[in-house]
Each structure stands twice: as structure tokens, then as C-alpha cells.
Amino acid sequence: MKLTPWWKEAVIYQIYPRSFNDSNGDGEGDLPGITAHLEYVQTLGVDAIWLSPFYTSPNKDGGYDVADPRDVDPRFGDLDDAKNLIKRAHELNLRVLADIVPNHFSDQHKWFQAALKAGRGSPERDRFHFYDANPDGTPPNNWISLFGGPSWTQVEDGQFYLHLFDSSQPDLNWDNADVNSDFEETLRFWLDLGVDGFRIDVAHGLVKEDIGKNHPDPTGLSNALRLDVEMDSDVRNALLESVPYFDRQGVHEIYRRWRKIFDSYGDREVMAVAEAWVHPPINATRYVRADELHQVFNFDLLTAPFNSVFLFDVITRSIELNATVNALPTWALSNHDSPRVASRIGDLESQALALFVFALPGSAYIFAGQELGLPDGELQNSDRQDPSFIRSKGAIKGRDGARVPLPWSGESPPFGFTTGKPWLPLNQSWSALTIEKGSTNPDSVLNLYRKALSLRAQFLAGSGEIQWLESPLHGTKSSELLVFKRGAISVFMNLSHNDLVFDLSGQVLLSSTNGSLNLNDNSVIPARSTVWILN
Ligand code: NOJ
Asked: Is residue 518 part of a domain?
């Protein structure tokens, strides 16, 4: 069954261009490398690709430091390469989402360079957040950058500018008319070039309040915002309710204006998904009200333990909250900012969880390499390039481990990713995980993903809500089995370390342990696995 609009329950494949495929031997992936391998992407059975930024950039933050949002960085190719990529994707029935970065520019953007020259009080400085120092010479407030260190940097004439991320990423002032009109031009530019929508970076961050005030606990707040810092959840939640630079009401006005632009492309069915880390969770639904954006990322599963109570709660909550605004949830197990799911919860567990979420209503996002069962790279500190590693002087390891290049073929690194020296090393142990090997091994994770997405399209598209079922087991073990029914399929996830034995009655369509499930034996759900049963 074909769903309209296309994005409602789409499966979207995230490509980190630098790490996908290198066509020219410089060690970094590029747009022609992606175009040449779109047929592979099509074999996965996904509906769309989301491309992390490939715009002109000094690459201080993996391209999320944009120096010209309407051009392609020469490392990735040129605008013709972008056009070819979009054209080829459309020929293969794949939609294309570009990643737009409206919270900040690179300090190399011509506007910031002009602002530096123009001096205090100028219209050029008004496009950013330039403020005078306090009388004692300190920055205008005590906010801490999300990458560590102060979120203010001083320029030659003594003023400071705000940067929530790296000092090379000055935040834009969304009260400024130029900023608004320039981004609208950028949206139209890419839509006119053929893209089908956008992933919106830091969508919750554009509007700031109380810049003139100190935060009562800036260190606590910056820890609360970091996924890798453990914290009592009440303390964390209280801190997250006090962020003066995230999730302000004003951001919604911006998205209402953007929605009108998207809708003006009519039957192109343009969509946008918000990266919005907000608290409390109900606030995320504001981004997907009928006159705003189409999807908002649910990040719960990026950090979720493989635990039935936790998973039941976050899944139920996400479905219910989205329903309040008539939207469907999104599910992502990995992305370029967090450890890869196979490394985080384990091989069996990551496959079980993937099959579980592929059967849920809403959109599923897959981070390139996830479909191979790829773990994080084993990196030396000297390999690391993430600004959070650099700014925190190594205290934060950063996100490079998840951003490793894909292993394509052959027996040793760089596994066909490049003919040159890859920008991050690939592990020798990945020889069994290459796309070449995965394609020929019927029991590979790659073929499991292909099978799951094909069955999802066949049996689950548009099949509505889930109904949680009581575990058919009783006693203590029942808490380690999650079961729901959706359409004609019942989905069982066994989170325990034991095979569970009972009568499933129905046909086993799919099991995350693949080869090891005896398809004639309906009565066993292997430990740490998910099984789809056709009733
Ligand atoms: C979120 C992006 O996903 C991340 O990679 C980037 O560092 C920050 N936003 C800043 O743009």
C-alpha cells in the first residue's frame, strides 16, 4: 500500500557524505561517491536519503559550520554533482533530504567576516549576537558552549559574540530580517534544485532569551545537556527546564513561515524533520503541529538501555504524545552524534531493537552502516577531529567513533571506501562486515534489514496503531518479553538471556537471529531477539 504523503511512514537512510564513498582517492567521501552507490541504497528498501551537510565549509564541525549554504564544498564536488545525485536518486525512487543549519554559520561566512570589519553597532554585527564585555571585562553571561568552554569569544575591538557550539560557529540572530530572508532563499534554492525536504539542525535553538543574564548553574546545565554524563533524572529534568537558549516560543513562528514555503511546492510533498532536544517531551510535539514541521526526532532510543520497562515507556509515550497533534513518531537507533547502536547495546540486541522499531507506526531512520551491524571505530586520540574533543582537551571523547567510513569490499582496510588514506581508520576486524560480504551471506545483518524493510512495506504500511499484548508467559520472565500486534503481524521481543518457549501459533516471517531460528519451530523465541509472526 502506498502512503500519502510519502514521508508519513518513510524509512530514511542517513548518509554522512564524508564517510560514505570516496570517488577521487582523497580519503574523504564525496557526492559522486554517493551517486555511484545509490543503487545499493535502493536495495535496502528505504524511501529517502538524508544527507548531512556538504556545503562550503572549513569543516571545523564536520560541515555543520557552513560558510556558504548555497554551494557545495569542493571536497564533496560541485553543484552539478549535487544535481546529478538528486536526479539519480529520483530515478531510483529515492527522495532526498538536505540538512539545513540555521542556528549558526561558520566564522568564514562572508557575513561574519563583514561583521568583524564593520564594528560595534553595525547592521552587519546585528546578524549575529555581538555584545560588549561586562564592566569587569568578562563575557556578557556565563553560558557554556555545548562543546565545552565559554560560549562567548572576544574579537579585536573587545566585543564578544555568542556561539552555542564551537567558536568557529557564531550563532545567528533570528530577530534580524536579513537572517530570515537569507534562510528562506536557501530553502528555495535547494527545493528548486530538486530536494524533497530538510533535516533542520538545532531546530530548537534559533531564538535566545535573557542573553543579558547569568544562568544560576551553567556547569550543571551543560552536563545535563550532555548524553554522556550520568545524572539523577530529577536534577537533570529540573535543569533542562531552565535553558534560556533552547525551545523558546519564537522558534515556532519561524517554522510557520517555512511551512508556507514548503506547502507552496504543492504536490512535491516537501517535508522537514526537526532536530529538537527539548524538555519536557511533550514540547517536541509543538514542532509538528499542523502548520509547522512534519516530523521531529525522538532521541530516546539513542540512549535507551535494552530494558523492557524503559522501552515500553518511551515507545508508548512517543506514540501518545505525537497523537495529541495528529503526528506519527520517528525512531532512530544511531546517528552521527551518538555511539553506534551495535557498540552501545550489543550485536544481538541492536538487531532485535531494529526489528522491533521497524514494525512500529511512524518513520524509521537508519544511519549508514547500521544496516551492516557496524560498530564504532577504534580510534586513537590522534585520529579524533570532533571539536568537542578538541575544546574539552580530551575530556569529551566526541563523536568520531560513529562517523567512520563504510567498509565496501575486500579483506583489509580501507575496504574499498577509498583508494587513498581514509580520513578516519577502518578496523581490520570489519572484513566480515563489508557490503560485499553482507550481500552474499543470507544470514547477514544487511540481508536481515532488507528482509525486514520489504516485509514492512508489504504487511505494515498504513496499518495503523499498535496494540500491546499481554505477554503469553507468566511469572517473572514475562517482564522480559514485549509483544504488540499491528495489522496482521505480532511482534515479540525477548529481552531475556534465555530462549523463551511457548506456542506462537502463526507463521514466523522474520527473526532477528536469522539463521539460528528454526522456522519450522514456532515455539521458540531466542534470547535477545525479535520475531515477527503473521497471524
Ligand atoms: C547537531 C548536529 O547533528 C551536530 O553534528 C552538530 O555538531 C551540531 N548540531 C551543531 O551544528
From this structure: yes
In a domain, 291, yes or no: yes
Q: pTM higher than 0.90 for the full model? A: yes
Q: Are residues 94 and 195 in the same domain?
A: yes
Is the pLDDT assigned to residue 447 strictly greater than 50? yes
Pocket flag, ligand 1, residue 480 (CB < 6 Å) = no
Q: Is 171 in the pocket of ligand 1 (CB under 6 A)?
A: no
Cβ count near 20 (within 10 Å): 26
Atom 11 (ligand 1): residue with closest C-alpha? 64
Ordered alpha helix ranges (H), 174-278 = 177-193, 218-224, 233-240, 250-263
Q: Is 201 a catalytic residue?
A: yes
Residue 10: CB within 6 Å of ligand 1? no
Alpha carbon 504 to chain centroid, angstroms: 35
Q: Which atom of ligand 1 is nearest to the CA of 335?
A: 3
Q: What is the pLDDT of residues 139-158, one digit of tens each?
A: 999 999 999 999 999 999 99
Place of cell 505494515: 460
User: DSSP letters of 253-295?
Assistant: HHHHHHHHHHHTTGGG--EEEE----SSGGGGGGGGSTTS-SE
User: For residue 500, what are the domain limits?
Assistant: 464-534
In this structure, are 441 and 487 located in the same domain? Answer: no
Indicate whether 83 and 126 sit together in one domain: no
CA distance 288 to 252: 10
- What gap in Å lies between CA 227 and CA 99, rounded to an integer? 22
